[in-house]
Amino acid sequence: MYAYGKSVPQDYAEAVRWYQLAAYQGFADAQRNLALMYRNGLGVLQSDVLTYMWFYIASANGSLKSDELRVELASQMTSTDIIKGNELARECMSSNYQNWRWLVSTCTSICWNCHI
Q1: Would you give the end-to-end CA distance of the chain in angstroms?
Q2: At what angle do helices 28-40 and 64-74 cross, to 10 degrees?
Q3: Could you read off the pLDDT of 12-41 as tens digits, one per residue?
Q4: Which of 5, 18, 26, 34 is least buried, going by the fewest C-beta atoms within 10 A?
Q5: Are 112 and 81 in contact (CB under 8 A)?
Q6: What is the pTM of this model?
Q7: Sequence-ordered list of residues with C-beta below 8 angstroms from that of 15, at least 6 positions apart, any chain
Q8: What share of residues in the chain are helix, strand, coil (percent, to 5)?
């Protein structure tokens, strides 16, 4: 709704907030939409690593389109960034989405060259 301005003013940051709430509950569509927000830098800083992470997670939760998009994105990423995206996705899923914010803030502060 907020991403497209349907019945409410368009607000990408608010859209991200709602996508996050649903993504943390395991909804693949919200995870894919969150990946797209990171891909395009809408409401968040653009990040190929976090885009890759959310496509990976959405794919693991059954989104076939997310897997296609993840593979396409990977062809444009460094191997270091792909490894970081895989690590973040695994950590995020193994914590049942509870450690996601900590992982991102940690990576942002210590890994500037992973394009977060």
Answers
A1: 26
A2: 30
A3: 899 998 998 899 899 999 999 999 999 999
A4: 5
A5: no
A6: 0.81
A7: 1, 2, 3, 33, 37, 42, 43
A8: 70, 0, 30
